[in-house]
Write a structure and sequence with these properties.
This protein is globular. By secondary structure, it is α+β, with helices and mostly antiparallel strands. It is built from seven helices and four strands, in the order βααβααβααβα. Helix content is about 35%, strand content about 15%. The protein has helices at about 20-25, 30-40, 55-60, 70-75, 90-100, 110-115, 130-140, and strands at about 15-20, 40-50, 80-85, 125. The protein starts with 13 loop residues before the first strand and ends in a 19-residue tail after the last helix. The structure holds uridine-5'-diphosphate. The site of uridine-5'-diphosphate has 9 residues, from loops. Uridine-5'-diphosphate binds next to loops. Belongs to the NDK family. Its EC number is 2.7.4.6.
Length: about 160
């Protein structure tokens, strides 16, 4: 873990997004990544990773007492996930809108969960629910040198 630079706010806000094992198995990676690219967000980290149970239990530590916790850990460790960090204005909240609701049945068509899945236990994608959890999750899943700072040459067409 590392200390976050202050200033990851505004257009530099970051969120942690993970395409879950069902999303990888079902070949949804390209289409999901494309949605974030087309929206105008900036990719600053991405890796295909087989998460350990230890990492997942830490990631979902707030849910430890839930009845679905052990099923969630085996689902999330059943295959590789695509772990990503996306950057942009209000990206935490916007990404949650793009994902839809936790339960795909409550997710509108047009959202990722609304378009690609039917059950809460196989809901294809994770996205941080607040700026604070984004910072915690990014430092849990990524080393600082795995995140890239790069100049976005068309940011003037996304921000005014
Ligand atoms: N989950 C589940 N059953 C439930 C609620 C949640 O299997 O009744 C799983 C689901 O994969 C969800 C994850 O646990 O995405 C984390 O739950 P959380 O409430 O944090 O929802 P999220 O932030 O992912 O929308």
């Amino acid at each position: 873990a590392y200390v976050f630079q202050s200033g990851w706010t505004g257009v530099n806000e970051r969120t942690f997004i993970a395409i879950k094992p069902d999303g990888v198995q079902r070949r949804l990676v390209g289409q999901i990544v494309q949605r974030f690219e087309k929206k105008g967000f900036k990719l600053v980290g991405m890796k295909l990773i087989q998460a350990t149970e230890g990492l997942l239990k830490e990631h979902y530590t707030e849910l430890r007492s839930k009845p679905f916790f052990s099923g969630l850990i085996s689902y999330m460790s059943s295959g590789p996930v695509v772990a990503m960090v996306w950057q942009g204005l209000d990206v935490v909240k916007m990404a949650r809108k793009m994902l839809g609701e936790t339960n795909p049945a409550d997710s509108l068509p047009g959202t990722i969960r609304g378009d690609y899945c039917v059950e809460v236990g196989r809901n294809v994608i994770h996205g941080s629910d607040s700026v604070e959890s984004a910072q915690r999750e990014i430092s849990l899943w990524f080393r600082e040198n795995e995140l890239q700072c790069w100049e976005d040459t068309h940011s003037h067409w996304i921000y005014n």
